[in-house]
């Protein structure tokens, strides 16, 4: 709720309504002045469009049988772009989850690596060892996503505690879905980070469903942000389809975490337009009309309306932007596909510092067989 915001640099926790700065019609409705310049706002827009187009590519990959699993992220783009722009890239650490495709892209992960991971081939930095849609990045400090829900929360807490002990000036931003907040790991991890005063920002991308289970069927809490009360940390409820509100709140919370080693919970209210995954039929548990209604809050259309109001965007700019992104994604996919199959010997690498005799023997037999 806008009237609840004291000023831009100190958003109030536990507001009864989600914090927003843009109306659905793209009007600026915050009680503070916008201080982002035209180039930055256009970049946020371009990153969200790229995230959406990446999702569309993932859908093509699954439909053409080139990948075996996708977790559609359309509807989550504002959350992804806000997180990527609120952190110090390559300095802070991210602990994302499988629905963060747009976040990997906005962080600067080369799209050819993202596609390599989706194909599980020689272009995959994870060497084909992860399920598709579960990348990570060593140079960008992005912890590899794990399918086991909330299993990344305790490691995120541990990393943040370590940052505090070593006084590194880094922050952990850990994202997850609403369903993750009903897992034991989530409570253990958030509690541990909070009691240690660790610089960790926990970000819930609340899309109201954990596969087919609607939010009110898995938690009696009125909001996810409310759960922060139990751990003595602030909880912020934000319109997660308003990229600028999400950015401003996250930036504020991340910088406070860095300055005072504070832990916080940010709930971004989003909506996933697609099914939970390529193995799901969402028409069985939610009405089409609900999906269509959510699209009226679309983060990309909303920011576009705002840019148009400023006189900074038009159809020509839109066409050019989309053509550029399509070219980059197509080229990246071609590069990834050209890399070919992951070499079989990768199976035997990286786990142990030196290979014991029985693995050496297995490796030799596999390579002999393939020859
Ligand atoms: C520990 C664990 N339990 C169950 C599952 C099966 N599962 C996969 S995704 C999912 C739903 C997660 O929902 P949420 O955290 O809200 O994220 P979303 O997928 O909606 O973005 C479940 C229950 C799992 N992967 N791990």
Attached small molecules: thiamine diphosphate
Low-confidence stretches: 1-6
DSSP, total strands? 7
Name the assembly state: single chain
Mean of all residue-level pLDDT scores: 96
Share of residues in helices? 40-55%
In N-to-C order, the SSE pattern is HHEHHHEHEEEEHEHHHH
The CATH topology of the largest domain turns out to be Rossmann fold
By CATH, the superfamily of the largest domain comes out as Thiamin diphosphate (ThDP)-binding fold, Pyr/PP domains
Proper CATH architecture of the largest domain: 3-Layer(aba) Sandwich
- Characterize the biggest β-sheet: 5 strands, parallel
Distance between the termini: 66 Å
Features:
five-stranded parallel sheet, 371 residues, two-stranded antiparallel ribbon, 2 domains, Rossmann fold, 7 strands, alpha/beta, binds thiamine diphosphate, single chain
Layout: helices, strands, pairs:
Elements: H1 38-63, H2 77-86, E1 93-95, H3 101-107, H4 111-119, H5 153-166, E2 172-177, H6 184-195, E3 200-206, E4 209-210, E5 213-214, E6 235-239, H7 243-260, E7 264-269, H8 288-295, H9 299-310, H10 315-338, H11 357-370
Parallel strand pairs: 1-2, 2-3, 3-7, 6-7
Antiparallel strand pairs: 4-5
Helix pairs in contact: 1-2, 1-3, 1-9, 1-10, 2-3, 2-7, 4-10, 5-6
Bound molecules: thiamine diphosphate.
């Amino acid at each position: 709720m806008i009237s609840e915001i004291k000023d831009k640099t100190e958003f109030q926790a536990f507001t009864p309504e989600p914090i927003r700065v843009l109306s659905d019609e793209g009007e600026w409705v915050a009680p503070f002045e916008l201080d982002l310049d035209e180039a930055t706002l256009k970049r946020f827009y371009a990153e969200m469009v790229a995230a959406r187009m990446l999702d569309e590519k993932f859908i093509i990959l699954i439909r053409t049988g080139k990948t075996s699993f996708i977790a559609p992220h359309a509807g989550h783009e504002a959350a992804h772009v806000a997180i990527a722009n609120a952190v110090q890239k390559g300095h802070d650490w991210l602990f994302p989850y499988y629905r963060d495709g747009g976040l990997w892209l906005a962080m600067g992960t080369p799209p050819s690596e993202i596609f390599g991971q989706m194909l599980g081939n020689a272009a995959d930095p994870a060497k084909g060892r992860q399920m598709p849609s579960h990348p990570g990045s060593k140079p960008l400090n992005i912890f590899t996503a794990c399918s086991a829900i909330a299993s990344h929360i305790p490691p995120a807490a541990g990393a943040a505690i370590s940052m505090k002990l070593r006084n590194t000036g880094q922050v952990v931003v850990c994202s997850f879905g609403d369903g993750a907040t009903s897992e034991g790991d989530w409570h253990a991890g958030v509690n541990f980070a909070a009691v240690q005063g660790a610089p960790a920002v926990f970000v819930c991308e609340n899309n109201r469903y954990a596969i087919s289970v609607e939010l009110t069927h898995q938690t009696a809490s009125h909001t996810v942000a409310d759960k922060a009360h139990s751990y003595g940390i602030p909880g912020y409820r934000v319109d997660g389809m308003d990229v600028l509100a999400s950015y401003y709140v996250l930036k504020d919370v991340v910088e406070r975490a860095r300055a005072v080693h504070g832990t916080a919970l940010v709930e971004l209210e989003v909506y996933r337009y697609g099914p939970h995954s390529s193995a799901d039929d969402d028409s069985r548990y939610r009405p089409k009309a609900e999906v269509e209604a959510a699209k009226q809050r679309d983060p990309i259309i909303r920011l576009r309306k705002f840019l148009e109001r400023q006189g900074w965007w038009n159809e020509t700019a839109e066409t050019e932007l989309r053509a550029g992104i399509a070219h980059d994604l197509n080229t990246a996919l071609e590069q990834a596909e050209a890399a070919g199959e992951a070499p079989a010997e990768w199976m035997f690498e990286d786990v142990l510092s030196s290979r014991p005799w029985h693995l050496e023997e297995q490796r030799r037999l596999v390579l002999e067989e393939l020859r």
